[in-house]
Amino acid sequence: MKRKVIFDTDPGIDDTMAMLLAHASDQIELVGITTVFGNATIENATRNALYIKQRFGLTADVAVGADTPLVVAAGEATTSVHGENGLGDIDIPAGDYQGIDKRAAHDYIIDSVKAYPGEITLIAVGRLTNLALAVEKDPGIASLVKEVIIMGGAFGHNGHTGNVTPFAEANIIGDPHAADRVMTTDWPVTVVGLDVTQQTVMSSEYIERLRINSARYGEFIYQITRFYADFHKREIGMDGFYVHDSSAIAYAIAPELFDVKVGAVRVITEGPAIGHTLLKEGAKSYPIDEWSGKPQQRVCVQVDHRGVLDLYMATMAERVTA
């Protein structure tokens, strides 16, 4: 049976690559796409989702989500990484992209989870505002969600700690209050953070092979990643780019590619360490312990990076002949 997925996203180049992986996989039924501000404005993120839906024949619903975090200021879209339009400044045909669900993203999540109790996996690869709003409005959905998979955070494994501050990852610091709410809700969360996403790199040679091997998706992915690859080369001298959001989809398809640790997770919501994700392992009690009594969540700490790359390549190529 396919895993029913609502993909919460701010597309975004790597978000779009992950969305297409979910669409191409025979293990996933992409039920819905909910948009959030982050890599692009909420308007561009939603337009991009609708454009991808139309261009590649996705059947998923699209619902517009939050453009403002719960508490902190929204900041600016990360156009230096993803381009002004969010898709590497490729030419997106002008048009009135139709098909937006009338419900706000958090209401769409609530209704869908209730319609398919125990079946929906929420995969969130942007700020966690929509998920936090959903569980705040209707806490009862927590017991009905199959799993929550998050691309975000950094716990210091493999030398990876943060990419916005020394200790904070972009999605988490973008709305730390929402992230802490999602992490401490009693539903099964798996965090796919920088600890593993920065262990997997799509090199320029890999993207060239994908361009050749995937007749349906390859050329499009090549075009949108030119801007993204240039950013990584300019900023850190990398040939290629990290595989962030697609790693969350890879976990949903093949969790055996990842090693995890289990414990309570909290997010720092103020001060110089704002956005820092912290995992408490074990049952030891402390005199002051804001992790005590919180649900046990899963944090990915190691990955078979070659397995993730092989999975992506095989999935995107095989869909052509389906």
From TrEMBL:
Residues in Inosine/uridine-preferring nucleoside hydrolase domain copies: 5-308
Keywords: Glycosidase, Hydrolase
GO terms, molecular function: hydrolase activity
Domain of life assignment: Bacteria
One Pfam short name: IU_nuc_hydro
Secretion signal, residue range per the UniProt entry: none
CDD domains given in the database record: nuc_hydro_CaPnhB (cd02650)
PANTHER family (UniProt xref): INOSINE-URIDINE PREFERRING NUCLEOSIDE HYDROLASE, URIDINE NUCLEOSIDASE
UniProt-recorded name of the protein: Nucleoside hydrolase
Lineage: Bacteria, Pseudomonadati, Pseudomonadota, Gammaproteobacteria, Enterobacterales
